[in-house]
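User: quick one, fold this
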Amino acid sequence: MIARYTDKLIMLMVAALIFVWPIEHTIALRYALGGLLLISTVCWFWPKRHDLVPKLQVRPVSLACLFLGALTLWFMAQGLWIAPEAHWVWQELKGQWIKDLLFWCLGLALGAGCLSKNAAVGRQWLFALLAGLSGIVLWNVFACLGLWLTTGHMPLMHSVTGARATDSYVNNMMLAFLVGDLLARDRQKQFLPWRRAVSLILIVFCVVNTAFIGARNGWIGLGMLAFSGVVVHYINGWQKVGKKALIFLPVLLGLLVAGAWTSWKTDTRWNSLKETLPVAWDIDTHKAWLNTDKYPYPILPNGQQADASNYERPAWIHAGLRLVADRPLGAGFSRHAFGHEVARLYPESEPSPGMHSHSGMIDFAVGAGIPGVVLWLGFVLTLIGFGGVAYFRYGAAAGLVLVFLTSGFFGRSLLDSAMRDHMLEEFLFVSAFLLPTISRYWQKRTS
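Assistant:
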C-alpha cells in the first residue's frame, strides 16, 4: 500500500519538477520539489535495493559515474592546490556541483525503476517526465496563439519561462524524445506510451514553438536534429526497404529549409553576422566585449553598428580561449571563472567580475581547465557511445534519445550558457534516467 502511494507521489513530483525547472524565479519551489522527490525516491528505492543496485552495476552506468567522479576529484584538487581563490571552488562545489550530482543519482535510481519487476512504474515516470516537458511547450504555443488572436500580430521571440534560451532548450529536449521514438518504430520498437500520431502532432507543436521562441540556437538545434533524423531514418529504411526510404528525404529537408527561411526573415541578426565575425574576433582592437559602458560597439564596414549578440559571443569565445591558454589547468571550477579571469587580465577596462561568455563550454574550460574538459568530453562520449550501441544493435529507442539529448546539450553548450544552474541539473537528471534503461541491452551484449 505504501509503495503504491510512493510510486504515485514520485510520478507527480517528476512531472511538477520538470515543468517548474525552467521557469525563472522558482528556485525555492524547484528545491522544495527536488527535496520531496529525493525523500520519495529513497523511500521507494531502499526496500528494493537488492534488486535494483545490480541493475546499475553495468558498464554504461559505471563508466559515466567514473568520469563524473574523476571530474569531482579534479575540482577538489583545484581547490586544494591550483585555484588562485580556493574559496570560490569550494562554494561552487557546495552550491552547484553537489546538487548536480544529486540529481544525477536521482535519475539513475528512477531509471532503474524501468527495469524493476514492476516495469509499469517506470513507464508512469517516463510519462510524467514527458508531461512536464510538453506542458512548457504547449503553454508557450497557446500563449502565443492567444496573443496573436487578441492583437492581430504574430508574437515573435516570446517566452513563458522568462528566458527564450530555456524555452528553446526544453523544446529541443522534447523533440529528442519524439524523434527518437519515431525512428525506433522503424524497427518495430515503441518507447513512448502513446501512438505514433501523438508524437507527430507534438512534433508539429514543437516546430511551431521554435518559430514563436525565435532563438537562433533553437533553429540550429532543430536543424541538426532533423538532419540526424533523416540519416538514421535512411539507415533504417535502407535495411528494410532499400531506396524507398529516400522518399522521406525531400519532405524532411523541405521542412528544414522552410524553418531556416522563417528564421532568416524574422531575425535580422543573420544579415550582419558574416561582416561582424572578423570584427568581433579582433578583441584587442574592439573592446566593447569588456565593458559596453566604457567602449562603444564597433562599426561594421557597411557603416552600421555591430549587433550586440553577433559581436559579443564570438569576442567572448576568443577571450575565453586566450584565458584557457593563460591557465591551462584552469582558474578553479566556478560559474563565474570567466568573469574573474577577465577582471584579472583586463583591470583597466573595469569588467564585471560576474560576467560570463554565454558559452557553457568556454566558461567550463576557463574554470576546469583542459583536464576538466577532457573528463567532461569522456562523460559526454560515454553517453553517446553506449546510447548508439543500444539503438543500432538492439533498436532501443532510449539509446537514440540519449544520443540526441546528449549531443544536443553539448552543441548548445558551445553557444549558450547551458552548463550551469537548472539546465545542467535537468540534463543530468534526464540523461541519468535514460542510462539504466539501456543497461539490459549492454548486459545482453557482454554476457
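User: anything notable?
Assistant: The radius of gyration is 23 Å.
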